Amino acid sequence: MFQVCLTCAHLSLCMSCHVRCLTCNCVGSGDSHTVALTSQGAVFGWGTYRDATGVYGFAPDVKFGLRPTLVWAPTKSADQAVKIATGNA
Q: Is 89 part of a structural domain of the chain?
C-alpha cells in the first residue's frame, strides 16, 4: 500500500503539503493519465486523455486533471473496485 496526496498528486506521504492522503492498493498509468485504487474500492484519476488528434480531456469541462479526482465511488461493498488497469491503445 502507498499514499497519494490529494493536493499535489505525489505518491507516498507528501510532507510539503500536510494534507489528507489516500491509502491506495494499486496505481495504473498511461502516457498522460494516472488512476489509483483506494483500499475502500474507490478510484481516483488525474492527468488527461489523448487520441490521434490531440488532447481529448479528462472530463467534459476539464482538459487536464491536476489533482486526483474521484471517478468511481462505491455505494455498497459489492460495488467496490478490486482491480484497475490502464495504458495506451
A: no
User: Domain range holding 35?
Assistant: 2-79
Side by side, the strands of the sheet bearing 2-5 are 2-5, 21-29, 33-38, 43-47, 65-72
* Whole-prediction pTM: 0.75
Tell me the pLDDT of the chain (89 aa) as tens digits. 667 766 666 666 555 554 567 777 888 888 888 888 888 899 988 888 777 777 777 777 877 777 888 889 999 999 999 998 887 65
Would 65 be classed as within a structural domain? yes
How many structural domains does the chain have? 1
